[in-house]
Amino acid sequence: MRALLVRFVAQDSGQDLIEYGLLVGIITVGAVATILTIGPKVQGYFDGLCAAITC
Asked: For residue 50, how many other CB atoms are within 10 A of its CB?
């Protein structure tokens, strides 16, 4: 069992997959934070536009 654990820890074949997963996670968090920050301002622009053209 110990040899299996040592071999599992020594393998790095899945390292790239983990790095890509972390990168995707970081980008996703950044995109969501940006959308939540900018969203109300964009909604205000569209509401103003809709009022101007009487939707």
From this structure: 10
DSSP string across 39-54: HHHHHHHHHHHHHHTT
Q: Which residues of 11-29 are buried (b: 16+ CB within 10 A; e: fewer)?
A: eeeeeeeeeeeeeeeeeee
- Could you give the CA distance from residue 6 to residue 12 in angstroms, rounded to a whole number? 12
Distances (CA, A) of 46 to 28, 36, 37, 42, 53: 25, 16, 16, 6, 11
pLDDT for 9: 66
* Residue pLDDT, tens place only, 2-55: 887 677 666 666 777 888 999 999 999 999 999 999 999 999 999 999 999 987
